[in-house]
């Protein structure tokens, strides 16, 4: 739902100039009712000058009159055709100057651990250009030797929910295209929350692969007759000795 600009200043004006209830004002400006109560008591936003929503073409006087007569009436924000689509972000995401040096590292992380993401998706996630992504994919970037893959969520370049949404979208596209995926690829296409909840699959190191079937036991030994050592005399007799040679 669209909200008026300068919410607290608008709330101050409505409190000072109307008899509308705190609940109605809170619903209109997008604040909590207790916060509106705090503004009225002077505990919240002290010194804030009221912003007239009627003079600034955000609210009709008729709406105020209806709200004052009916406590259940909800104020309706006037639609400004010139502001249509203003909330939609255009162009690449803005990245603060303090984090721009880490942006190539985040691109390297996405290229390495989520190769299914398109250049356009990566550009939207971290706010970069497709030529930069392509140079990192092809390892022709001027600083590629000094780069380290770093999670863009940890760097604050994007939200975890945004990364998960992009990964899920890539998964849906792969499924629609009918491409076969390995277990590792399928795990990458899961969200972080789903991936962390999965049990780790035991894997055998490549260096000892095949030793799981190795045995020191000779199969031919199974056919040999087992020697019974329950008799003490037979245990101490040497092979080839004759029982008739025993001393009297």
UniProtKB/TrEMBL annotation:
Instruction: Give residue spans, biased composition: Acidic residues.
Output: 219-231
Region Disordered, as annotated, extends over 214-248
Q: What is the lineage of its organism?
A: Bacteria, Pseudomonadati, Pseudomonadota, Alphaproteobacteria, Rhodobacterales
Q: What is this protein called?
A: Cytoplasmic protein
Read off the Pfam families from this record: TrcR
Q: What is the top-level taxon of the source organism?
A: Bacteria
Q: Which InterPro entries match?
A: TrcR (IPR010421)
């Amino acid at each position: 739902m669209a909200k008026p600009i300068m919410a607290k200043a608008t709330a101050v004006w409505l409190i000072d100039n109307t008899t509308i209830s705190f609940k109605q004002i809170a619903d209109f400006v997008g604040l909590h009712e207790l916060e509106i109560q705090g503004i009225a008591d002077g505990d919240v936003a002290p010194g804030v000058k009221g912003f007239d929503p009627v003079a600034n073409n955000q609210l009709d006087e008729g709406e105020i009159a209806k709200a004052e007569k009916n406590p259940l009436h909800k104020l309706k924000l006037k639609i400004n055709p010139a502001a249509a689509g203003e909330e939609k972000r255009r162009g690449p995401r803005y990245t603060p100057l303090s984090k721009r040096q880490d942006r190539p590292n985040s691109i390297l992380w996405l290229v390495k651990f989520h190769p299914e993401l398109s250049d356009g998706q990566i550009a939207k996630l971290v706010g970069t250009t497709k030529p930069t992504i392509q140079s990192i994919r092809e390892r022709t970037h001027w600083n590629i030797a000094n780069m380290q893959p770093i999670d863009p969520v940890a760097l604050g370049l994007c939200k975890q929910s945004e990364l998960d949404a992009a990964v899920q979208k890539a998964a849906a596209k792969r499924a629609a295209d009918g491409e076969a995926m390995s277990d590792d690829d399928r795990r990458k296409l899961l969200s972080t929350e789903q991936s962390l909840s999965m049990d780790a699959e035991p894997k055998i190191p490549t260096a000892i692969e095949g030793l799981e079937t190795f045995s020191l036991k000779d199969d031919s030994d199974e056919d040999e007759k087992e020697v019974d050592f329950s008799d003490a005399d037979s245990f101490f007799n040497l092979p080839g000795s004759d029982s008739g040679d025993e001393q009297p």
